[in-house]
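discrete fold record:
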Amino acid sequence: MHFPKADDQQQADNCLLMARGDDISPHWLVYEVARDFLSVPRTFAVVAIYSDYEFEWLEAEDMAENEHGITSVNIEAGAEQPSGLDCWRITLPRMKLDVWGSLQLKTTLYGAASATEALIRVLSADALGAGSALSEEK
């Protein structure tokens, strides 16, 4: 799965809503997408996280300098891992964690003032029955 390139600047905005992690109430991750020019409106990627497992929070020193965004993690042979699940590393300003489960890019949202506003817009549209209006990538 391809996710939009994350803005790696320290002032880039992101947010994480922790829920049950199932199909009815997934966790939600919103992060700011990298822009080529500052005149381009802010864009946020909205990702649903389906995971029954606890997140593994990482320390900044555990990360490679050039590592940022959402990447699939290759697990070493013999390492303990949940059966049939992928491991994803999420590396954003102020947020570094590994997640076991599946991630789905729900939409990219233009013009929101913050990641929180982008999440509220998406959840409000879903609550009003406009969830089908969200573009879903699989």
In short: Residues 56 and 98 are 5 Å apart (CA to CA).
